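Hi everyone, sorry if this is the wrong subforum. Our group has a chain we'd like a structural model of before ordering constructs, and none of us has done structure prediction before. Sequence below.
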Amino acid sequence: MMLRSRENNRAVTVDLIQNIPNPQVFQTWRQTIYILCLFFLNQIARPGLVAQDLGIHMMSRDQVFLGRNPAIPFSKNTIIGLPEGSGILDLQAGKGDWLVSQKDGSRKISLADGWEGLGQETYQVGVSWRLRSFFIGKKFNRFQLGISHELEGNSLIGFNRDLAGILAFGNYGYLQKQPLAKEQPLDLEIDVKNEIFNGFGIQLGYLFNRVSIGGSLRYLSGLQELHTEVNQLELDIRDPLSITSREDWKVYSANLVNEINLDSIQFIPFTDLNILGRHPGFSGSIGIAYQSPEVLLALQWKDIGSIRWKDGTLFSRKGTINYSGISVPNLLTLDPNVFNSIGDTLRKLVSVDKMVSQYRSQLRSNILAEFQYYFLNKWNLGSAINYYLDRRWWQVMAGVNYQLFEQLSLGSQGSYNASGRFNIGLHAALRLAAFNLYLNTDHIQSLYPTTNLNQFSARVGISLMW
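Answer:
Right subforum, don't worry. Here is the predicted structure as tokens:
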């Protein structure tokens, strides 16, 4: 929003959002989106949608881990899976420097510097993490059975260059930065998703001679969820003194956002939630495997299911809003009460509809195929292909594993995905009697400090098997 002042017959244009001290009344939807994005960036920095790590499947014959094909036979008769944790970060945010070093050695988010490295495509920041509390498995003559519990979270922010520019520079500042903003309305893209839920699972496998089949069923209990549905978010800033927005968007939230206002977003503290959740859902996986002393082939359809979010909230806006600036004789002698009047007007214009809503969110159903070939009693060559049905997105992996000692195996893998990224990873397993420790990262750069890290993955787990 703009004010125009006449000083000595000279027109002075001022971007209030950028230049008025303490401009609470001018917290338009720009600040609302900004707060929302920073909240989810903070969620990501603390541990969200990202593909799984594939290198761990180089150890699927010997280890039992989250996401393993339920049809693959256990390597031992009794499995006690102790805690396991995994996390993946995927940062696709251009070539700009979003974190700028300060004099005191700290680093702060700089939207302006990050914007400089953006092109015309859509960018995203995503995080996925999973924590297993326990797994208990038992193999009988031809059957194998397992029960487990895990906690899973996914976060995603998608955005384009114009959205980042408006947040960084304001409407008047962006006119100076982006010539196209003077010629046509801006089409702003934003996609936000966050979910956390429990999974209580049971799996069953039946073993033929070399072929085995299996399936798993999980009861899901949701803790919190939020996602956006944006049909239109267009901003016309061609006239510095008049802003027109055309909006048609929805925000669904369950136990996360309590209120969306002009000047703030009220979040429900995570500490106030029931850790067991209260939003029910189910998911399942089915698989088939072939195993011989030399070869392992396995195919799995994973994460088929959804969660029903009860007592959720739907926030929405639809319509065209135009706000023109005001003219004052002298900005320096402006009556402060005019800000309250403008604030009240904006709150009426930029109101958000709110209603109680029940809705469902789908899990990221995907297909995983894997192959391993063992030779010379110590070597293992393997590969895996993973395809996500909803996003039509894929990744492939090929790796090698070597049995260095009876107690220790080491390996490395390379992966490539539909985003055009190639990564090199490492995996290892330590076996001391019944005790097992396994580790994996699909991104070797995760192992050393860097200021340009755009992908990160790590998994570590322990188990007892005999």
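For your construct planning: Confidence is low (pLDDT under 50) at residues 1-29, 38-49, 327-332. The helical segments are 16-19, 29-45, 111-115, 161-177, 337-349.
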